Amino acid sequence: MDTALNKKILIVDDEEDILELVAYNLEQNGFQVEKAATGEAGLKAARSENPGLIILDLMLPGINGLDICRLLKSDPDTKNIPIVMLTAKGEESDVVRGLELGADDYVTKPFSPKVLVARIKSVLRRNNAAEEADSDKLQHHDIIMNLGKRQVTVSGKTIELTFSEYEILHYLLRRPGWVFTRNEIVDRVHGDNYPVTDRSVDVQIVGLRKKLGSAGRYIQTVRGVGYRLVE
């Protein structure tokens, strides 16, 4: 979902006046609005309409807002849709529970429509920035390389790599299945004509495999040629 382009907002609230007030202010700011007055209708709309953001009341007939939040955030198809809780329940425990379930922000009733719209725009900007950052990643099974942070994780655990190890892994991750010669790897890591032997590349690969743990098996030696990343 590209929230920079997705201007559709789903409002889930059982109070008609709140629905109309929020819808009017969002439409005045260029958003497209979908409305739902029950938890079940909201859940269905969230799954079918692919909104850019959901404004979700906690006190709803049928399925309550916290349960909707939990269901949406546990579903791969909807987990990335940002949620702003809109509720009269301002107790700290309710806010914390909603945020722990994955909600992105909250606004308590009574509220200023201008403040609500500003908070929505802020959440969309944050979410879009996060998605752009995520696009700056390479992944192969449980190996994830965050290029912006120069960070590598395996099964969610950060591993520390030397400059050369990182560059070798980056090279392999860019083209899974491709076979790279040792000279190509040396040129990638150090630039053309760097005085290094095939043996030094092999030593780097050994160290890289060790740090990757069980994921090191994805780096395959192609006898007499070099290395590649395999499935």
Which helices and strands occur, and which strands form pairs?
Layout: E1 8-12, H1 16-28, E2 32-36, H2 39-49, E3 53-56, H3 65-73, E4 83-87, H4 92-101, E5 105-108, H5 113-134, E6 137-140, E7 143-146, E8 151-154, E9 157-159, H6 163-174, E10 180-181, H7 182-190, H8 198-212, E11 219-222, E12 226-229
Parallel strand pairs: 1-2, 1-3, 3-4, 4-5
Antiparallel strand pairs: 6-7, 7-8, 8-9, 10-12, 11-12
The total number of structural domains is 2
Beta-strand percentage? 15-25%
As laid out across the biggest beta sheet, the strand order is: 2-1-3-4-5
Task: Give the name of the CATH superfamily of the largest domain.
Answer: Response regulator
Quote the distance from N terminus to C terminus: 28 Å
Q: Count of helical segments?
A: 8
Series of secondary-structure elements, N-terminal to C-terminal: EHEHEHEHEHEEEEHEHHEE
Mean pLDDT across all amino acids: 85
* Second-tier CATH architecture of the largest domain: 3-Layer(aba) Sandwich
Q: What does the largest sheet look like?
A: 5 strands, parallel
- Computed over alpha carbons, the radius of gyration is 24 Å
Q: How many strands appear in the DSSP assignment?
A: 12
Helix percentage range? 40-55%
Low-confidence stretches: 1-5
